[in-house]
Design goal:
The complex is a heterodimer of chains A (259) and B (317).
Chain A (H helix, E strand, L loop, with lengths): L1 E5 L2 E3 L21 E3 L1 H17 L2 E7 L5 H10 L3 E5 L9 H15 L3 E5 L10 H9 L2 E12 L2 E8 L2 E8 L2 E5 L11 H7 L4 E4 L12 H4 L2 E8 L7 E4 L4 H11 L4
Parallel strand pairs in A: 1-4, 1-6, 4-5, 5-11, 6-10, 7-10
Antiparallel strand pairs in A: 2-3, 7-8, 8-9
Helix pairs in contact in A: 2-5, 3-4
Chain B lengths: L2 E5 L2 E2 L2 E2 L1 H11 L3 E7 L5 H9 L4 E5 L10 H14 L3 E5 L2 H14 L3 E9 L3 E6 L4 E7 L5 E4 L14 E4 L12 E7 L13 E5 L9 H11 L2 E4 L1 H5 L20 E5 L5 H4 L7 E6 L6 H4 L2 E4 L2 H15 L1
Parallel strand pairs in B: 1-4, 1-6, 4-5, 5-11, 6-10, 7-10, 13-14, 13-15, 15-16, 16-17
Antiparallel strand pairs in B: 2-3, 7-8, 8-9
Helix pairs in contact in B: 3-4, 5-9
The chains are: A alpha/beta (259), B alpha/beta (317).
The structure holds flavin-adenine dinucleotide (FAD) (2 copies).
One flavin-adenine dinucleotide sits at the interface of chains A and B.
Chain lengths: 259, 317
């Protein structure tokens, strides 16, 4: 089975994240870049499926040069090879253009299964998997906390507000995963060493028939008009419980008309 | 004024509160038209949609619309967009709502804004990003604006609309039927409001100490008519089901009131609750970062404070 895992480099949530004042895009220099946490679960699931069914796991990332660090981590976990779509023309792409560019790469490299995290920690749009399924004409099995493949059919448990749905489809498919699906493995020392020798193909938009007029800041379907740091919340009242903490809290709730 | 399509969210025929919020929002920007996709629309549901301003109610009543993963709903909306040329399409910013919005955006070659917490003139949307640290105003500049709006972004206000019903027939492509739902499994839901929709959320964290002790949190929630949430520490420990996790990798809530008990307030938890209008924290550690956000904080043992608060609320009701 030919599995492609999408992995995104995002600013570490533990550091201060910013937008750039000049073009209002993500400031990638302001914070450390890390692998989007949910994407590690996606890599783990891909490796598990490969272990059970054979085949190959390819990592796909779209991002500037330094996103290669993200690829290395996935390769160290056990993925076989990687494709890094990197081109200045992609800077400022929104979800529409990102999904377009990634779909073009996926069409070029081919796949039975594409696995993603269900959302990224920076933009958190949660739309990419659905957009890829739409663009690729593949089955959409998203928000999965369990994945089973049998021959050319695939079944997942899709998390819903009320519990879960059991969903069935034929490959090729696009799957997104939630964090309760597995426990991502730590790269071993051997894995880290082996990763250094694994093939990473860096491609530009021309290599995947990506139309420059459909990507980047100028082509984006949406735009940031302006932004500002959120005003700090006004300091609240903090009281120490002297046996009446609950009653005091009730007074506060009453003053705000919650009771 | 041009029409604004509002995708109706419903549970077992009952229109969800978020839809009434979206109709209220749509009314300030154009003529709201509700879109009901799936079987089972009732007279009550229609009346509710009209009460909150729907001038039109488009009804796609086919069972097929709900038998597959999101694609049929996106296809139905895309056909309506082509037929009616609405000024915008609003959906609820739930996981499924956003997926529908994503597919619809591709189908109609339109931009999409996700997780809007407000929407103004020209469909300029407010977003609160990076765990609430930055406020953004963003807009769509290609195609029909598609905006996924977070529950609790607007107070729903009734204002009667004509509620003229128009049946729509949707022809589904084979591609839309690729992923079939073979079974729906409902888990304990109980009488509490849905987490992402609730006006009040009471959440417990590691400080709750055990699964059994979550009854303390539930007691307070029930006294307030609130939903129960949990931190990841609590769901990872198995004290509360994962679907109630609030935060970066859990649900995003924007209630009127959020009460955090025994939760430290890690950045990843804050990412899911920081846009709450009022925040109350109960924590025995005065240095806990949650107090930086709290409008009201009690430094103390939640096992003392929370039951007392619950009793006081019951007394005052
Ligand atoms: C704060 C912020 C808000 C934004 N809001 C919007 C908006 O409202 N509308 C809009 O159109 N665009 C928006 N964008 C732009 C959008 O984030 C990017 O186009 C893009 O990175 C895809 O969105 P996502 O990360 O939210 O995808 P999600 O759907 O949240 O990501 C799901 C998964 O897709 C995969 N993935 C995503 N991007 C890549 C990548 N580059 N390479 C490899 N895998 C990837 C990962 O596996 C990830 O887990 C926003 C960006 C930021 C920084
Ligand atoms: C990528 C990533 C994603 C994450 N996603 C999420 C997410 O979605 N949601 C989330 O919640 N977390 C998430 N986390 C985890 C997050 O970093 C914290 O570990 C988590 O929120 C801590 O939960 P907690 O506050 O309940 O526990 P702790 O941090 O252990 O805090 C417990 C608090 O309870 C207090 N306490 C203890 N006993 C009592 C008592 N008797 N009375 C009163 N107070 C008491 C303590 O003083 C302490 O402040 C994520 C982490 C990462 C790295």
């Amino acid at each position: 089975m030919n599995i492609v895992v999408c992995v995104k480099q995002v600013p570490d949530t533990a550091t201060e994240r910013k937008l750039r004042s000049d073009d209002k895009t993500l400031d990638r220099d302001a914070a450390d870049g890390v692998v989007n946490e949910l994407d590690e679960y996606a890599v783990e699931e891909a490796l598990k499926l490969k272990e059970a069914h054979g085949g190959e796991v390819t990592v796909l990332t779209m991002g500037p040069g330094k996103a290669t660090e993200t690829i290395r981590k996935a390769l160290a976990m056990g993925a076989d090879k990687a494709v890094h779509l990197s081109d200045d023309a992609l800077h400022g792409s929104d979800a529409l253009s990102t999904s377009y560019a990634m779909a073009q790469v996926l069409k070029k490299i081919g796949f039975d299964l594409v696995i993603l995290g269900s959302e990224s920690t920076d933009a958190r749009t949660g739309v990419l998997a659905a957009m890829l399924a739409e663009r690729l004409g593949a089955s959409q099995l998203t928000l999965a906390n369990k994945v089973e493949v049998e021959g050319t059919s695939i079944r997942v448990q899709r998390i819903t507000d009320y519990g879960f749905d059991k969903v069935e489809a034929a490959l090729p498919a696009v799957v997104s995963v939630v964090e309760k699906i597995n426990e991502p493995r730590y790269p071993s020392f051997k894995g880290i060493m082996a990763a250094k020798k694994k093939p990473v193909e860096t491609i530009a938009i021309g290599d995947a028939s990506i139309d420059a007029g459909q990507v980047g800041l100028d082509a984006a379907w949406s735009e940031v008009v302006d932004f500002a740091a959120a005003p700090p919340r006004a300091a609240g009242t903090i009281v120490k419980d002297e046996g009446d903490g609950g009653a005091n809290a009730a007074d506060f709730l009453a003053s705000k008309k919650f009771i | 004024m041009s029409e604004i399509l509002v995708l109706v969210e419903q549970v077992e025929g009952e229109v969800k509160k978020v839809t009434l919020e979206l109709l209220t929002l749509a009314r300030s920007l154009g003529t709201p038209a509700a879109v009901w996709l799936g079987p089972g629309i009732t007279a009550d549901a229609k009346a509710k949609l009209a009460e909150y301003g729907a001038e039109k109610i488009y009804v796609g009543g086919s069972e097929e619309l709900v038998q597959y993963v999101v694609a049929p709903k996106a296809e139905a909306l895309a056909q309506l967009v082509a037929d009616k040329a609405p000024a915008a399409v609003l959906v609820a910013a739930t996981a499924e709502g956003k997926e529908i919005a994503g597919r619809l955006a591709v189908k109609t070659d339109s931009g999409v804004i996700t997780d809007a917490v407000g929407l103004g003139e020209g469909f300029v949307a407010d977003q609160s990003i990076f765990g609430g640290g930055v406020n953004v105003r963003a807009k769509v500049r290609r195609g029909t604006p598609i905006v996924a709006v977070r529950p609790n972004s607007t107070a729903p206000a009734p204002s009667a609309g004509a509620g003229a019903e128009e049946e729509i027939s949707v022809t589904l492509s084979e591609a839309a039927k690729a992923a079939r739902v073979v079974e729906r499994v409902k888990q304990e839901k109980g009488a509490r409001p849905e987490l992402t929709e609730a006006a009040i959320v009471v959440s417990g964290g590691r400080g709750v100490g055990s699964a059994e002790n979550f009854s303390v949190i539930e007691g307070l929630a029930d006294a307030l008519g609130a939903a129960v949430g949990a931190s990841r520490a609590a769901t990872d420990a198995g004290w509360y089901p994962h679907q109630f996790q609030v935060g970066q990798t859990g649900k995003t809530v924007s209630p009127q009131l959020y009460i955090a008990a025994g939760i430290s307030g890690a950045i990843q938890h804050r990412a899911g609750m920081q846009t709450a209008k009022t925040i109350v924290a109960i924590n025995k550690d005065p240095e806990a970062p949650i107090f930086e956000l709290a409008d009201y904080g009690v430094v103390g043992d939640l096992h003392q404070v929370v039951p007392q608060l619950t009793e006081e609320i019951k007394k005052r009701k």
